[in-house]
Design goal:
Layout (H helix, E strand, L loop, with lengths): L3 E6 L4 H13 L3 E4 L10 H13 L5 E6 L3 H7 L7 E3 L3 H9 L5 E5 L5 H13 L6 H10 L1
Parallel strand pairs: 1-2, 1-3, 3-5, 4-5
The chain binds D-ribose (RB5).
């Protein structure tokens, strides 16, 4: 699996997305920022699904996606088979969606949390490992 992370957003806060992209790159990951590059109004399902397809196709290990609440773009990403994406507004949840749910995407709400917390949440997500074992059984049940 490549040490790559795909990142995308809708128009809600492309500056937060760019800040997160720089932060992740500074940790040594290769970041594919697939936009959008302007703040023109757009549609979060387009960007959530596009990022999710990168992950599902193995082009990226993880995805980080941003919209106003994180909710809509998360819902869109989770429609792509193989994607397990959670919205997080706290670091504990960000750690646990990796440790117990083997999440491969993280969604953030730019109108919900401030930049500093967003970066801490990203750190918690990327710093955690899937624990496997009984959690793998349950994740398999999600995948059906
Ligand atoms: C866009 O205004 C807003 O609806 C979107 O960013 C997101 O919050 C949807 O879930």
């Amino acid at each position: 699996m490549p040490d790559r992370i795909v990142i995308s957003s809708d128009h809600a806060d492309i500056e937060l997305r760019k800040t997160i992209a720089r932060h992740i790159a500074s940790m040594g990951w290769v970041v594919d920022d697939i936009g959008p590059m302007t703040s023109d109004s757009t549609h979060y399902p387009i960007h959530g699904k596009e990022a999710a397809q990168h992950v599902a196709q193995g082009k990226a290990r993880f995805g980080v996606i941003v919209c106003g609440t994180g909710q809509g773009i998360m819902m869109a990403a989770n429609k792509v088979p193989g994607i397990r994406c959670g919205v997080c507004s706290d670091t504990f949840s960000a750690k646990m969606i990796r440790a117990h749910n083997d999440a491969n995407m993280l969604a953030l709400g730019a109108r919900v949390i401030a930049e500093g917390l967003a970066l801490e949440i990203v750190d918690a997500f990327l710093g955690a490992e899937f624990e496997g074992g009984r959690h793998a059984t349950r994740v398999d049940m999600i995948e059906g």
